[in-house]
Every structure is written in structure tokens, then in C-alpha cells.
Amino acid sequence: MRDGRGGFCYELNGAFAHLLTALGYRVSLLAGRVAGPDGSFGIPYDHLALRVEAEGEAEPFLVDVGFGRNSHHPLVLTGRGEQSDPAGVFTIAETEGGELDVIKDGAVQYRLEQRPRLLRDFESGCWWHRTSPKSPFTQSLVCSRLTEDGGRISISGRTLLTTGADGRTERREMPEDEVVAAYRTHFGFALDRAPQVRQGWVAAPGR
């Protein structure tokens, strides 16, 4: 953690790109816009994902460790058929404008440009998500990770969400005194009080 907050796509995929490059993979940064519930898309540089090429592999992969609803495993970026994954069935479809829609179980998750970008290109999108009252990251704190059985466990505010490998989610509202213990139990975070969103930043006291 840095500055009292956790990471999102720019930091997670940005750091992962450095790691993969150091391991010998060819990595390009791709700019995306996340699909909203009404079918509209977010701001330019709304999301950062990775195009990864591996020696001995004929096709590049889409790798994304910074999007909560994404696949657990890399997807074939140039594949146009269904790709099964523990998180669901994914399809990558090219739009009329030459961009790529990443689709999970029939619903578009985000739209990607195919042009490689530099990390500094995402500064405006990162700034917007850190400061805008319209950004989901300034409205609520979310902490999430995959589980060993292919599901996911998340804390959103005071809500504990447990999603099984079958996609079914159980929600439980926690009293404030349970939130700190839940962060320690499920994420290994030693906090002295419950995190909170403050002044456009995700604050995590005690870290």
C-alpha cells in the first residue's frame, strides 16, 4: 500500500507488466473503457490491460490482473470463439471501429484499443478515478481476491461478499467491529480500524 490506499488497474497491471517484461515476455499496454450497466463506456484511459507475447506461442494473450470480473487465466487475444474459464465463458469480438470488446457470459465487460500505449498515457484516467466524485473508487472501498476453489471473496464497505465457483454470491452486512477482523482473516491486512474513503482517496488506517 502507498499513501494509505490500495491499487487498481493502473498500478496492478502496470507493475505486472514490469514483472513479465523482466521474465522475458513482450508486453504492450492497452487502453480500455469499462462498460456501464446502461451499455455506455467510461472515459478514455478508463482501464489498463496487457497484451502479452510469449516465446513459442503463435498468438498473443490478453492478461488482466486489475479487473475484478475478468478471467482467471489469460485469454487468446486474437481468438474469436468462446474461451472457457473458471470465471465464465469469454469472447473477444472486434468492433466496426477496430477495437476489441471483451465479453463475459454474453455481457461486454470493457472495450480495448489495439494501439499500444505508454504508462504515462494513463495519468489522466488515473487522476480522474482518484479524484472525481463520479468515480467508483471515490464512492466506496472495495477489496477483493480470488479463492483457491475458483471463487472470489470481497469486502465492499461493510459488506462481505463470498462468490462460489458457480457464480452464486452470498452477501453479509458486518457490524463495524467485525470489519477489521475480516480484513485480517481474508486478506492478511493488520488494520487498527476499518478503512474508509476520504477526500477521493481510499484510506487504510494502520498500514
Structure description:
By secondary structure, this protein is of the alpha+beta class. Helices cover about 20% and strands about 35% of the residues. Strands 4-3-2-1-8-7-6-5 form an eight-stranded antiparallel sheet, with helices on one face. Strands 9-10-11-12 form a four-stranded antiparallel sheet, covered by helices on one side. It is globular. It starts with 8 loop residues before the first helix and ends with a strand. Mean pLDDT is about 90; it is low at about 200-205.
Integer count of domains: 2
Unreliable residue runs: 200-207
The CATH homologous superfamily name of the largest domain equals Cysteine proteinases
Going across the major beta sheet, what is the strand order? Answer: 4-3-2-1-8-7-6-5
Number of helices: 4
Proportion in β-strands: 25-35%
CATH topology of the largest domain: Lipocalin
Distance between the termini: 7 Å
Annotation, overall tally of beta strands? 14
What is the H-and-E element order?
HEEEEEEEEHHEEEEHEE
CATH architecture of the largest domain: Beta Barrel
Rg, Cα atoms, Å: 18 Å
Q: How much helix, percentage-wise, in residues? A: 10-25%
Structural class: alpha+beta
The rough form would be described as globular
CATH class of the largest domain: Mainly Beta
